[in-house]
Design a protein that fits this description.
89 residues
């Protein structure tokens, strides 16, 4: 019985730590990915094009940045789930 309670406690600890690390990674990626896109396309200033109303650049930029953030979120969720499962066994 005490082993079960200990395992549940560790799974809570792992999920909290994993969640905090995941939030930091997602926030860092939301700041890093737009800068990376600006470096990969040096001849196009996406921010100026979006301000000028160029919807094609806005949609492309938004989709690429959004896909990167969603992809990283899926990886972080898998890592947190792996931590919880390893704590319960």
């Amino acid at each position: 019985m005490t082993e079960t309670i200990s395992n549940i406690g560790w799974s809570i600890v792992f999920s909290l730590i994993g969640g905090l690390v995941g939030m930091v990674l997602v926030l860092a990626s939301s700041a890093l990915v737009p800068r990376l896109m600006n470096r990969l396309t040096p001849n196009i200033d996406e921010e100026k094009e979006i301000i000028r109303g160029n919807t094609a650049v806005a949609e492309y930029f938004g989709r690429i940045v959004g896909a990167c953030i969603i992809g990283l979120s899926i990886v972080v969720a898998a890592a947190v789930l792996g931590g919880i499962i390893s704590a319960l066994h």
